[in-house]
Amino acid sequence: MKMQTLSTQPAAPAIHIAPSIMQKLTILSAAAKYDVACTSSGITRQGDGSGIGNTLSCGICHSFSADGRCVSLLKILFTNECAFNCAYCRNNCNSDIERATFTPDEICTLTIEFYRRNYIEGLFLSSGILISPNYTMDLIVQTLYRLRTVYRFQGYIHVKAIPGADPLLIEKAGYLADRMSVNLELPTSDALRRLAPCKSRHTILKPMRQIQNGITQNRHELAIYRKQPQFVPAGQSTQMIIGATPENDFQIMSVAESLYQKFSLKRVFYSAFVNVNHDANLPSLPGGPPLLREHRLYQADWLLRYYHFTVDELLSDDRPNFNVYLDPKCDWALRHLEYFPVEINTADYRTLLRIPGVGATSAQRIVKARRSSRLDFPDLKKIGVVLKRALYFITCSGRTMYPIKIDEDFICRNLLSDRTQIPRQLREDGYRQLSLFDDMQFGGGTDVCIPM
Amino acid sequence: MYVFQCEDSIDGIFSGVYDAWASRLGHKNIQLSSGPNANYTLFCEYIPVTADFEKSRKVSRTLIQRIGAAFYEDICSCAMADGSLKKLPMDKANAIYQTIVLALACKKGADVLQQLSEPCIFCVFLLRRQTRNEAHHLLEFLRFSELENGILFAQIHPKNDVLPILAPHFANRLPLENFIIYDATHQTAAVHSASKEYLIADARDLPLKRQMQQFSTNEAHFRSLWRAFFDTICVEERKNPKLQIQNIPKRFWADTVELADRI
After folding, report:
1. What residues contact A11, with CB distance under 8 A and at least 6 apart?
2. Which of A279, A406, B56, B246 has a C-alpha 20 to 30 A away from that of A12?
């Protein structure tokens, strides 16, 4: 019986059946899912009536997957047949997984058919290294060219620049895509050398610099001739893996800050490390990926980009990590009570931005609303200020909302007595509830370690 | 006190604004009300207003010329909102009337929208935000299906009358497609045929039930591809259903492809 079944079945590895489009899509979207940059923002472009698609600068998320992350673009790899051996990546050449490669036409059909049903906002195309960086980048450029010219697609395209590819190919891709990104992967070049031996700081930063220069040059050309084709109009972004290597938050944020300043990036994304390969050289994370740390980094990132903070204000060599209990802005405010309380009716816009509980939108509304009348606490509530955080730091016409003292311990205790202000992860762990305040010596220099 | 009772639509409310203004009864003695009154108040005279396109057009023209197009759009978004959802400080039509009165009295009329301490303006602010937020949600979560004859069809169940915001967006996005967006709550439909302007029509008598269920042969294929993509894109280690519901509220799930069977 056994012999019979064996003889009738063909030897499995000998026949290669081309995977169906369904199989390819599942394999290559699963391979791309750890990439975090799925935004469709940064450029408004109306359709010209001859094809399909437009873009909105606010970006549109079309769905949200079970992990709560937005699904905005068709996020796929061109291929996961990768020649590189990065330890953190599921698609590295040593791991035993199913492999597949799209054809340019398959990607175009999927994009167009999903787009016209309003499932997606555009295409996010990344790739493993098939044969060589140049070969792969060329395939990507061909795909984008078909999509833009044959299918006349005018929606959003985010494409990865493959490190090590020829500058000419990257330039071609830049004229077809809206946003480009090169992943920094790890915050320090030392970690990169250890975990991604085929990549180097040099091959990553080179295309990044090229795209930056391309954008600047294109802006000058556009000023002279309006109809000049646009080069990466929605800017470039990058991402870093958080928690795979022992860098602290101060190092990570300093890298991000220098990327914003020196490479004029639009966004830096942080991706909490998931040990997909169970590699012995990488940390195992029994508590799951460091999501709270990732959250704090994003909060700080916003403070850098929209709130005029610098990394040196938020962190230092003595306090290299963010406070897990308080968001970075609250934490900063508690350590700098000399700036508070702020008078809402007279403070300038930048000072308003530094108040915990006041965001960019409410700060703008305050500035506009106080032209016509003096503002009081009920007005601030209408404007959208989060009073339960802000009330310790503000006065309206010289009065605080309740009798409070401007004192670090007092404010901290009151802020944390509202359990909704404590991050969910900590709340649900019931993490040392009673001794919580004994451990928190603000200003004492000791660090609250991250319980993950 | 005189109460002008108008129909709950842009034309109805603007006609009410026109009649109230023209009545010369004094702004302080006038209130507007949209929709049926549950309780009649003593010492009030109730004046019914019939929606009149000509009057509405005159009000629109005045608002655009004297205050500005942005202000006019804000007021329209407010008029499109469902005024019964939230507990508001005043009736929707009344808030619009009072706001217009305030704006026309100022030199820079559009700036009155910043004075949120004024109850009528706060009310307009809330309603406008309500409509715009829902409209943005539907730009995200609306799903087209391809019918047998190649027409794209989408059904939505919005609380506010957001079709006038959705239609131009999709007409610009899909200029070469024939599509219909059917608003099942308000029984209206936006119809767009390839390379032409769209129009918004009353859809009470359309035979939607039967015809709109006959999908093209490809439809099932792309739906299952999309579902497969949606399921694989989730990172298992980060699973967070609460965040998902916060971002895509459950009332939108029924009209999507990927979440319809998960409710």
Report:
1. none
2. A279
A52, A65, A372: residue with CB nearest B233: A65
Which residues, other chains included, contact A167 with Cβ-Cβ below 8 Å and sequence gap of 6+? A207, A210
Six token digits for residue B167: 């239609």
Q: Given the DSSP bridges, would you call strands A236-242 and A267-272 parallel, antiparallel or unpaired?
A: parallel
CB–CB contact A119 B257 (8 Å) = yes
Q: Does the pLDDT at position B227 exceed 60?
A: yes
Here the tokens at position A356 are 């915990």
Please give the Cα distance from A358 to A356 (Å, whole number): 6
User: For residue A184, which of A133, A237, A234 has the smallest C-alpha distance?
Assistant: A237
Q: Residue B226 corresponds to which tokens in the numbers above?
A: 């999309």
Q: Are residues B109 and B66 in contact, defined by beta-carbon separation less than 8 angstroms?
A: yes
Best probe of the A interface among B235, B244, B259, by most A CBs < 10 A, is B235
Q: Which pTM does this prediction carry?
A: 0.89
Mean pLDDT taken over chain B: 90
pLDDT of residue A16: 54
Cβ atoms of A180 and A174 closer than 8 Å: yes
CB atoms within 10 A of CB B200: 16
The token duo for B148 is: 């047998």
| One-letter amino acid for residue A15 of the chain | I
Q: Which helix (H) or strand (E) holds A181?
A: strand A179-181
Instruction: Answer positive or negative: Cα dihedral of A219, A223, A224, A225.
Output: positive
CA A187 from centroid of its chain's CA atoms: 14
**Binary contact (A365, B115; C-beta < 8 A):** no
Q: How many inter-chain contacts (A to B, CB under 8 Å) are there?
A: 155
- Identify any residues that bridge with A187 across adjacent strands, giving them in sequence order: none
Return d(Cα B15, Cα B9) in angstroms, integer.
10
Query: How many whole angstroms from its chain centre is CA A262?
Result: 18
Which one of B112, B115, B116, B259 makes the best mutation probe of the A interface by having the most chain A beta carbons within 10 Å? B116
Which pLDDT does position B75 carry in this prediction? 95
Minimal C-alpha gap between B263 and chain A (Å): 13
Query: How many residues appear in chain A?
Result: 452
**CA–CA min distance B221, chain A (Å):** 9
Residue B93 confidence (pLDDT) above 80: yes
A54-105 pLDDT, tens digit per residue, is 999 999 999 999 999 999 999 999 999 988 888 888 888 888 888 999 999 9
Q: Around Cβ A408, how many Cβ atoms within 10 Å?
A: 14
- Tens of pLDDT, residue by residue over A216-236, are 999 999 999 888 889 999 999
Tokens 């439909």 correspond to B189
The rounded distance, in Å, linking the Cα atoms of A151 and A290 is 42
Domains and CATH numbers, chain A: 19-239 (3.20.20), 328-438 (no CATH)
CB contact under 8 A, B145 and A117: yes
- For residues A293 and A243, the answer to whether their CB atoms sit within 8 Å is yes
Nearest to B226 among A33, A53, A114 (CB): A114
Tell me the three state secondary structure of residue A378: helix
ipTM above 0.85, yes or no: yes
Contact of B78 with B121, CB cutoff 8 Å: no
